[in-house]
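Example record

One chain of 328 residues, shown exactly as stored in the release files.
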Amino acid sequence: MLDELDRALIHALHIDGRASFTQLAAVLEVSPQTVSRRYERLREQAALRVVGLPDPQLTGHEQWLLRLTAEPETALDLAHALVRRADTSWVYLTGGGTEIVAVLETPLGMAHGHSLLLHELPPSVGLTAVSAHHLLHTYLGWRTPWRMSANALTARQQRMLAGARPPERHDRVQLSPADHALMDALRRDGRAGVAELAVDTGWSPATVSRRLDHLRACGAVFFDIEIDPALLGGSVRALLWMAVAPAHLDEVATALADHPELAFVAHTTGPTNLVAHALCPDTPALYQYLTHGLGAVKTIRTLETAPVLRTLKAVGPIRPPGPTARHA
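Predicted structure tokens for this chain:
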């Protein structure tokens, strides 16, 4: 179970994933040693991880949401094949266990990048159906965390963290090979120390620090949190595929982004043009939300609910065994 300090630490890391234990301690009004112990416990017992992510629009990428169906005996093999790919995130096993949903990131302009992915899958996975939905606009998620994981700090505490200032929005950023190496390292561990990042990039620690400060300031990189959602009241999870008339889409999506039950809301292409990820404490709570929360939105024309059975991969790559360096 998480206590108030655990929740406050999680919220603080949402705001500034690279804040030092000393900075976090000042905000939380405890000792740096206490913060360090709590952080390590959350890593071990709650699957907590800070990950650094590139902003797709500013770094020349686009995202697709894939729905793949396979034969029952091969669905899990297909899911694990997607997990192993460097260009995928959020790989879910949904429905009755034969559907896999994943986010695929491709270079901008590769309109059929998802087709390339399918050609690279081994024929033994028994793929029977596929649909690809281009993520056009995200209303909730990525930079904006689920409210149940970021609702513990006061306004004053949030202002104390440097990351509370919104980044300046710039034009697209041209990334060098060393920048890509930096992004890869931050995706593995967003709190990796400057010395470790220097080894990954070939830069000096001072250059790493300056470049990372610039990428953060212009919004090209941001930091997110991975954690077991069940510990925050999200034991029952479902993907919601909705169809909304275009004239009402922005209004509906903006309203849904305020629902505490939702961790992700995005506008997509396809027959269902709005997708959301619901996290509820139990099945009755999900039923209540579907019938009363979403049921009150009259402009939702159709709704498909796909229970999430397993999350096989979150936003960061699968961690190799062994210790990982931390930024203290």
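Notes: Residues 240 and 305 are 5 Å apart (CA to CA).
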